[in-house]
Write a structure and sequence with these properties.
Number of strands: 10
Strand content: over 45%
Distance between the termini: 57 Å
Helix content: 25-40%
Shape: elongated
Order of helices and strands: EEEEEEEEEEHH
Radius of gyration: 19 Å
Strand order of the largest sheet: 2-1-9-8-5
Structural class: alpha+beta
Length: 129
């Protein structure tokens, strides 16, 4: 398989000859082998594992995103990714960087929720008129 990990502004990894991939979703982990049927999955923050003959087993800490398999090509589009060999350090990176939202992002989400609520209320009042 061919694996390409895409970040918003760059290609993080582009590997050929990938023999297997293991990714995490909200429902749990799943594996991809070369002859698996095409699929799409929403990824949760976690560890993405892939194996090649040249590199062996490689681990990437990835933020939430989407995995798309079409034929021999697997595209993974995530917000952030970190590569490494120590699973303990990568798991800590996931917990520290990907699972905890910073104060600015939490504030932005709060404002967006209030805006959405206001729009829905206004829409409902227009329907009743």
């Amino acid at each position: 398989m061919n694996l390409k990990v895409l970040l918003p502004f760059q290609v993080f990894a582009d590997r050929t000859g990938v023999s297997r991939i293991v990714a995490e979703t909200r429902e749990g982990a799943f594996g991809l082998l070369p002859h698996r049927l095409d699929c799409v999955a929403a990824l949760a923050p976690g560890i993405l594992t892939y194996a090649t003959d040249a590199d062996g087993e490689v681990y990437l800490a990835v933020d939430e995103g989407v995995l798309v398999k079409t034929g021999p090509t697997v595209l993974v589009s995530v917000r952030r990714a970190i590569g490494g060999t120590d699973l303990g350090q990568l798991r800590a990176a996931v917990e520290q960087e990907f699972l905890t939202l910073d104060a600015q992002e939490q504030g932005l989400r709060s404002v967006m929720a209030k805006l959405e609520t206001g729009v829905l209320r206004r829409f409902m009042s227009l329907q009743h008129e």
